[in-house]
Amino acid sequence: ILFIIYIVNCLINIYWVMQFKAYKKLMEIKAQEALIANESKSIFLANMSHEIRTPMNAILGMSELVLRQTIPNQAREHVYGIKSASKNLLSIINDILDFSKIESGKLEIVESEYRPSTLINDAVNICIARMGTSEVEFIVECDPDIPCVLYGDSLRIRQIIINLMTNAIKFTKSGKITVAIELGKSRNKQIQLKFTVADTGIGIVQKNLERLFEP
Fold this sequence. Notes:
By secondary structure, the protein is of the alpha+beta class. 61% of the residues lie in helices and 16% in strands. It has helices at 2-67, 73-104, 116-131, 154-171, and strands at residues 112-114, 137-142, 150-152, 176-187, 190-199. The chain has a 3-stranded mixed sheet. The protein has a two-stranded antiparallel sheet with strand order 1-3. The longest helix is centred in the first third of the chain and has 66 residues, at 2-67. The chain is elongated. The model has no long low-confidence stretch (mean pLDDT 83).
């Protein structure tokens, strides 16, 4: 009887070892499939981003050429709207491309000279276009002491400002939205800009403030 029990226990152990090996093999196959699918998604995102950016840049270029010509004011407003919307879409496309770069570990901060006034003007125009016929007052307060030219990653700055302002627009049904750009501390030729977006919308529940900067 003891021998039979021993044999049964051995068979049970062999069975579970085989089951574990089979499960481990299945998990390895699934992990490999997931890795291949993720790589394919990253390649697709990167390729599509580049394919879409080409015609979008063409639209922006043609809009700029039209705006340089003498055209009726109403037509100029429409063309400027096309240009602003195209810039907005191009920014979204850049976000998609950035996600593919993040997954491949290639996200970089690209610094160059930029004009803060142009950056702010473009961001505000994109957001005002989103407001449509809304009666919400949109106020921009810009520190006159901010230098005309700065050095940094203007694309990242623009993305952040637009995100903050569009959130304010989305949740503000009446009253006003105020965007303030102030000159902060300066040290070792470095300039600190402070951006503040305030609105009369519904705001954020107190208990959710701690989660504000979480994914």
